[in-house]
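tool_call predict_complex ligand=cytidine-5'-diphosphate
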Amino acid sequence: MRFTVAIDGPAAAGKGTISKAVAAHFGFAYLDTGLLYRAVGAKVLAGAAPIAAAQTLDPVDLEDDSLRTPQVAQAASEVAAIPEVREALIAFQQSFAAREGGAVLDGRDIGTVICPGADVKLFVTASPVCRAERRFKELSDKGMAVTFDTVLADVKERDARDRSRAAAPLVPAEDAVLLDTSELTVEQAIAAAVGVVTKARI
Ligand code: CDP
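tool_result ok
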């Protein structure tokens, strides 16, 4: 059985939490595609050339805890605007999406470019302040020294870059179901997403 769920949206909208829960609920595999760009961004911060870093990316590169820092997120969003970097990461994502047993992929262009034929497409969003509050809490809980204002600025800057780039810009697919989580608890957001997927499986 192949079944692909594409979950896109801006920075810190809750895609990861929702995607993991949807994958667990249905027994699907989960890929956080942002990690691919973060891993390339981290290599560039360490001195590598972006395209070569993308072309030689290894799945173990995705397991590094330091990929979650705001600095790496910014570098990720910069390398993600380079068409050749995106191109180098397509095959891995598409083969993950087509795996037996079902797959959930979250990112920015899953429903539009990577898996235009996905069985379900969700576009998860929330207001910039809500998203920054959640990301600020997440990073502070991990012990990172961040301020709310810098997290909000990071979220807004990445959104602007992700939306305005020519290569696979952040935009909802025409057939995506929009899910605004600003006023929802985590449980409500997960229930809404599981409901959309359940409907598509019938
Ligand atoms: O977790 P968060 O939403 O903050 O970011 P992420 O999903 O880890 O993605 C980091 C950056 O990678 C984004 O700002 C995008 O520029 C880029 N990205 C992308 O271009 N396409 C994807 N499918 C996933 C991430």
